[in-house]
Amino acid sequence: MPILELTAKFGTYAVMAAVLVFALGVVTLRNLFHCALCLAAALIGTAALYVVLQAEYLAAIQVLLYVGAVVTLVIFAIMLTEHLAGKTVRQNNAQSLPAIAGLLGFVSLVTVLILKTPWPVTPAALKAKTSVMELGKALMETYVFPFEVISIVLIAALIGTVVIAKKDEEDLPR
Amino acid sequence: MTLFGWGVLKGMGVTLKNFLTSYFRKPDEGGIFTVQYPEEREKPVENYRNFPFLVYDGTPEKIRCVACGICERECPPKCIHIEMELDAAGKPARKPAVFDIDHGLCMNCGMCEEVCPFDSIFMDHAFEVTAPERQKNLVRHKKELSKSNEYFKKIRPALASAVDQKRKAAEEKKKAAVPPPPPQSAGGQAQTTAQGPQ
Amino acid sequence: MRGVEFYVDMIFVTAKAWILALLGRFLPDWLIVLASITISGVAILCLGPVIMMYLTLLERKLIGRIQNRYGPNRVGIWGLLQPIADGIKMFTKEDIVPAKADKIVHLLAPIAIVVPALMIFLVVPFGERMTAVNLNIGLLYFIAVSSITILPIFMGSWASRNKYSLLGGMRTAAQMISYEVPMTLAVVPAIMMSQSLATNTIVLAQAGDYDLHWFIFTPWGLVGFIIFFLCATAECNRPPFDLPEAESELVAGFHTEYSGMKFALFYMAEYMNAFTLCAIAATLFLGGWQGPFLPSWMWFFGKTFVLICVMIWFRGTFPRFRVDHLMGFAWKFLLPLALVNILLTALWQFTSNLAAWFGSILVLGVSLWILVRLNRAFVPEKRSYPLEG
């Protein structure tokens, strides 16, 4: 059904364009809360692209972690600050032109790198589908050391949070 | 039992019991006591007072009110307006020609019922009264206010029968107080006494 | 020849196939694919709001009976047309937006909260062959999508430009995030025992002799079900976890400034969330659509209905949690219990004989006792502030 494939392609390009537009919105919008919402939209768009590329597990994890946790954290941080949509906040920078030049150079360098790297795109690799079981096995067998290190880092972060939040109590007069 | 969570389960048991028995229990035993107006109505208590009405015995012509104006003077918000009927010769005829009570002013206090010496104005039970306009139909005239003694007995049986007994006793006393016509044989005595100082 | 039960069971699937066959006569292939998607989508879009409407009526009638009064019974027999009257009321109310509110975000928040609530319907197995989209990461999809729900709450509370809305929104978001963690961990045992994330496979893994293999009849399943159900009640902001939106506390919290259709959308999202969470609880722990005699979708709706009645029962029974009790319950009680539950499931994977039962109950009892002791409310010592001079 070529019409459906064409529509799917068109849809994918539309989602990619939307992600780029939202990402642009994150850095250019005046209202900080709107920026956070554009970030959430960009991340959901990325998850949609993962679904198109047949990595559904990654898409679900992307939504769960990024949109459900990271953006929530960002919004909490934004809400606890003042001067959100102030007209006094400078939107432009005096160094826009050198920044854009540097950015273009970086983008062209990365594009050349991506196009020139011999990615192992073999038919076997194209047909491979990730299953949750394979991921679980890989985590527990091949990648068990990074897994444990990550868990230690997370525990350290949790304990650090509790310690920081608790420290204020000792300053109260007894 | 002081298990953790036992109070929660006990509470849920209470609500479940209430839920299930609400289908079976009567209102007095703790069931649902909603009176679903307007299909069911609660019988008002006898002394419930809503708005005044005038009592007539038999036909609306025989209204008990004599237009003395005591209730008009005693009414706190001054919602009663009475005009005495004048007969052909221009003399007061002890009947009201106009008896208006304003629904908007009346506060249902019942003072008019308490001060009326002729047992003619009492507080009604009818509350389902509506009017489409505020200015015109909220003033109740004599025709709407007059209700029969049978109606009075129906809504306030104890008070109505007490009033009837009182009126009957008063009538009989009046009949008994009229002196009997003097007999012919005792005419001399009567004339002697009737002559008085000469 | 298959019996009548099979045909009644497949009634919706056959209806859809019949419609597609009818359309196949005069439509090209690619439109048939689109039509298939559209039929499922339309079915869910009609089912969701209708369920929500009659859930509100059911709640009002049940709570009325618990509180010794009739529920709504004026509009139609037994109040069955009441949700329609409510719908008309919501449609015709004036849409008031605060003057300094952020208009775009104020408009987007109710829209964005209904979308995840509807998306969860896709992976719920309504019957034996009636999962709308049988994803092989079904449960993970459900968890991911229900975590998006937090964003529109922030949007709604921020865009209203109202201190109480902001406070309510922050509390709601904090509550939802906190209760997501034990919810996800309570689901893990079901995944472990059925070796798959797909919801239909999890239901099939509970098949057994006369429905005795439902996960709720095992120690870890029972504990997991209770944890999941409590977290589900907290995720939909239902009493007793409804501090963020209670009228006596924060004047309706984050949806204070919404009226008319926007409020109706928030309301709809809450009830649809309640329905889908009960549906997932029934799928994961109560054996989904399995059951003798009746068609599978009837069993499914029956089990979900029973769970919803339990949620309504909670509403009629309990006073509200205080906000620090709310958070403490999630982090200090449910989370450790869910972790112990995962350990128990791992033990259960090896053996499931009497020794395993005994061991599990012992471990659960000990851990519950420890948690209760640790969570005991403490009364701080009296402080004395001696006056100066």
Structure in a nutshell:
The complex is a heterotrimer of chains A (174), B (198) and C (389). Chain A has 174 residues and is an all-alpha fold. Chain A has helices spanning 2-28, 32-52, 56-79, 96-116, 123-127, 132-140, 144-167.
Describe the structure.
The complex is a heterotrimer of chains A (174), B (198) and C (389). In chain A, helix 1 (2-28) runs antiparallel to helix 2 (32-52) and helix 2 packs antiparallel against helix 3. The mean pLDDT of chain A is 86. Chain A has 7 helices and no strands. The longest helix of chain A is centred in the first third of the chain and has 27 residues, at 2-28. Chain A is mostly helical. Chain B has 198 residues and is an alpha+beta fold. Chain B has a domain at 52-172: 2-Layer Sandwich (Alpha-Beta Plaits), CATH 3.30.70.3270. The radius of gyration of chain B is 29 Å and the shape is elongated. Chain C has 389 residues and is mainly alpha-helical. Chain C is 67% helix and 0% strand. Chain C is built from 15 helices and no strands. The A-C interface holds A 1, 3-4, 31, 33-34, 37, 40, 44, 56-57, 60-61, 63-64, 67-69, 71-72, 75-76, 79, 131-133, 174 and C 29-30, 33-34, 102, 105, 135-137, 140-141, 143-145, 147-148, 150-151, 154-155, 158, 166, 170, 173, 177, 180, 195-197, 383.
Write the layout of secondary structure elements.
The complex is a heterotrimer of chains A (174), B (198) and C (389).
Chain A (H helix, E strand, L loop, with lengths): L1 H27 L3 H21 L3 H24 L16 H21 L6 H5 L4 H9 L3 H24 L7
Helix pairs in contact in A: 1-2, 2-3
Chain B lengths: L5 H16 L30 E5 L13 H5 L5 E7 L5 E11 L8 H5 L5 E3 L15 E2 L1 H4 E3 H7 L1 H21 L9 H9 L3
Parallel strand pairs in B: 1-6
Antiparallel strand pairs in B: 1-4, 2-3, 3-5
Helix pairs in contact in B: 5-6
Chain C lengths: L3 H6 L1 H14 L4 H38 L15 H11 L10 H17 L18 H11 L1 H10 L3 H32 L4 H6 L14 H17 L11 H4 L10 H25 L10 H22 L5 H28 L3 H21 L15
Helix pairs in contact in C: 2-3, 3-4, 3-12, 3-13, 5-6, 5-7, 5-12, 7-8, 8-10, 8-14, 10-12, 10-14, 12-13, 14-15
